From TrEMBL:
It holds the Pfam family DUF489. The gene is hflD. Gene3D superfamilies: HflD-like (1.10.3890.10). Keywords: Cell membrane, Cytoplasm, Membrane. It comes from Aliikangiella maris. Belongs to the HflD family. This is High frequency lysogenization protein HflD homolog.
C-alpha cells in the first residue's frame, strides 16, 4: 500500500504522542524510563521551525518506540492491548483541544518554548546529563505555568511511592508537555479522532513502513 507524505507526518506525530505517553507510564509505574526515548521527545520541543513532523523529531528513528507501540495498539490482529495507554492518549488529545482555545495560554506557551529553543540550541542534552536534567525541570515549570491552569487534567495512574517524588513529577510533566507538542503536530498534519475509525488501515500501513524503512529529517 502506497503511503503519502501527509500520512507519514501523521504517523510520526502520533508516534511522538505514543512515546511520550509510554514514558509517563514507565515513570509512574516503575520510577524510571528509557533516557534515549525521553531525550528524543524533549528535543522535539526545541525544534520550533521544522518544516515537517520528521524535521521536528530529526527523522522517524527517534520515535521508533512510539511507532512500535502504536502499531501494536491499532493492529486489529494484535490482542495485547493497553487500555490505560489508550485512555491517556485520548486525554492528551482532549487537553490539547481545550488548550488550543485559550489564546492567552497559547501565547505564553509559544513564548516560553521559543526561549527554550534558544537556550538549548546546541541540543547537547544528548551528551550533557546536567543540561538534560535542567531541561526536564524547565519543561516541567512551563507545563505548570500553562497546561496546569486548565480545568481539564490528565490523570496519571501509578505507584504512589514514585508519583510522590518531586523528580518523578517533574519528568512526568515534561513528558506530557512533549506529548501535547506532538498532538499539535498531529492536528497540523490533518489528524483527527476520525482517523482511528475510518483511516486506521492507512495509519497502520504508514507505521509499518516507517518501522521497516526509517526516514531521515
Amino acid at each position: 500500500m502506497s503511503v503519502n507524505q501527509q500520512v507519514i507526518d501523521q504517523c510520526i506525530a502520533l508516534a511522538g504522542i505514543a512515546q511520550s505517553v509510554r514514558i509517563v507510564q514507565h515513570l509512574a509505574w516503575k520510577g524510571h524510563t528509557n533516557d534515549t526515548d525521553f531525550k528524543a521527545v524533549l528535543a522535539s520541543l526545541l525544534k520550533v521551525d521544522a518544516a515537517s513532523a520528521a524535521g521536528v523529531f530529526s527523522g522517524s528513528f527517534e520515535v521508533s518506540s512510539g511507532l512500535r507501540i502504536l502499531s501494536q495498539q491499532i493492529d486489529p490482529d494484535n490482542k495485547d492491548k493497553d487500555p490505560e495507554f489508550v485512555g491517556m492518549v485520548i486525554s492528551v488529545m482532549a487537553l490539547q483541544t481545550q488548550f488550543a482555545k485559550n489564546r492567552s495560554l497559547m501565547d505564553k506557551l509559544a513564548e516560553k518554548i521559543q526561549q527554550l529553543s534558544e537556550d538549548y540550541a546546541d541540543q547537547s542534552i544528548y551528551q550533557d546529563e546536567q543540561q538534560f536534567e535542567r531541561l526536564i525541570n524547565e519543561c516541567s515549570d512551563i507545563y505548570k505555568q500553562t497546561l496546569s491552569k486548565l480545568s481539564q487534567r490528565i490523570q496519571v495512574k501509578g505507584e504512589p511511592a514514585y508519583l510522590k517524588q518531586p523528580e518523578t513529577q517533574a519528568k512526568v510533566r515534561a513528558a506530557l508537555l512533549a506529548a501535547i507538542r506532538a498532538c499539535f503536530l498531529w492536528r497540523q498534519s490533518g489528524g483527527s479522532r476520525w482517523h482511528f475509525i475510518f483511516k486506521k488501515k492507512s495509519l497502520l500501513a504508514g507505521l509499518r513502513q516507517l518501522l521497516s524503512n526509517p526516514i531521515k529529517e
